[in-house]
TrEMBL record:
The keyword Nuclease applies. GO terms for molecular function: endonuclease activity. This is Uma2 family endonuclease. Keywords: Endonuclease, Hydrolase, Nuclease. It comes from the Bacteria. It comes from Streptomyces sp. R21.
Amino acid sequence: MSPAPVERPHDDRPLTAEANRLMDRNPGYRVEIIGGQILVSPPPDGPHAEALTSLPVPFLAAGLHTSETRVLQGIGLWLPSGTEDYAIPDLSVVDADYRDSYVENNCYDPICFRLVVEVTSTNYQSDLRTKVSAYAEAMVPVYAVIDRKYQRLHVLTAPDKATYASHRVHAPGELVTLPDSIGAKVTLDVTEILTAGQPKRD
């Protein structure tokens, strides 16, 4: 069971209003507000979508979509870094009672998140820099990045202020077991994940 979410002021939301307008005008784009800046990600390409379809399989096989936890795609995470900040991870493992942690604008308090995963797109530096700080500050216990550009899996744990105390980089050929804190033993095949997300090379 998650602790009660932190109360937030509900004043005017100019950035949120603009972000929502951008989403309405650009279907398929992901719009987030991090550090008081609006970030817009293009619609995913086919391999990105394929990686994201394959990725939940080991989590589901481990029993993480049960009475204790849920495995969800595209759920909003309200960030403590600003009054309107939020991110939308590609994949999350959350407490089953996450609905009790609703904040606003289809976003939930970070206290109910056990793991977030991003699959990189053209703006991969955002996932490997901006979001590292954002998720660490939100105290998300585990952050994983499927780095399609450099063909690596990053696993960050032990959030400490605006960074993670542990940042391990894994190459194809490795099997990576995620921390038990997510609720079950999950082992990821780095080659399998990266192959699913690999764009066509000319």
